[in-house]
Structure formats: C-alpha cells, structure tokens
Design brief:
Layout: E1 12-16, H1 21-36, H2 40-53, E2 57-59, E3 62-63, E4 66-69, E5 76-86, E6 96-105, H3 109-123, H4 126-134, H5 138-146
Helix pairs in contact: 1-2
Length: 154
C-alpha cells in the first residue's frame, strides 16, 4: 500500500501542541472528522475504546492509534508530529511524539492490515523517525511520509 493514497497533505500536522494522550486524540479526531465526514465524537470514542484494549504505542516515541468504522468508505491516515512528547503508556515506557492515526472501514480487513504493516515498517526506521522529528512543517513531513521506498506492502 502506498501511503500517498491514504495520507493527504491536509492530514499531516507539524508541531502539534498537546499536553496529554487525550488531547492528542481529540485534536486528531477533529481534523479526521473534516477529512472523513465522520463525527468527531465517534472517531474519538472509537480510538479511546481501542486504547483501552491495549496501547497502540510501538516504542521509540511512536504510536499508531487506529479504529474501524461502519460508515467509512475508504482507508484514511493522519500524522501528527507533537511539539513535546506525551505519555501514551507505550510498551517501552517512553513518551510519544510521532502519532500516525489510521481509520478504516469495518469491512476492509486486508486494507487495514496492509496499512498497519506499511506504517509500522516505516516508523521502525530510526533514521526516518529522526527526520520526521526534525521536519519544520507539514509539507516536509508529508514528503518524507509518502516518498516511495519500494518496500510498501502490495
């Protein structure tokens, strides 16, 4: 899966000021509601429920909150580079400053798995994460994220 197909520029946020996990999810849910036309509360609630099942923090300051929605027609991704790391209860105990949100239709099992695999592969790359942390604006972040690498899941 190519991230360029699910991550538009307007879904990429640089230097997001957030004091905690809840605020990160609320801010991103607000942006997601404009892109997906789902309700902000529905998005936030679904993400909160998923976080209660198990933290989506994958370590190294990265997390991938995700949710599935009956009324969604296609996969959507959003990305936020936080101004300061926030506690996300990640497995490694480190706070999070790179957040890649994934919203998928309930029926899109294969697409969901491909998107998660592509995103997690990208964010396991420490050089990429450092570049994302140093980026100064949304355009630069977007270019880094959608650059074709020849390793995306088909």
């Amino acid at each position: 899966m190519q991230l360029s197909s699910i991550l538009p520029l307007e879904a990429v946020m640089a230097h997001v000021p957030a004091r905690d996990k809840k605020q990160v999810l609320k801010l991103m849910s607000n942006v997601a509601s404009h892109i997906t036309h789902l309700g902000e509360r529905e998005i936030f609630s679904t993400l909160q429920e998923r976080e209660q099942i198990g933290c989506t923090g994958m370590g190294n300051g990265v997390c991938i909150p995700h949710g599935r929605f009956d009324n969604l027609k296609e996969v959507h991704a959003l990305f936020a580079q936080l101004e300061r790391p926030v506690e996300f209860n990640a497995a490694d105990g480190r706070p999070v400053d790179l957040v890649f949100m994934l919203l998928t239709p309930t029926w899109a099992n294969t697409e969901h798995l491909k998107a998660i695999a592509t995103i997690s592969r990208l964010l396991r790359d420490k050089v990429m994460c450092e570049a994302l942390r140093k980026a100064r604006d949304a355009n630069t972040l977007h270019m880094l994220l959608i650059k074709e690498r020849g390793q995306d899941a088909a």
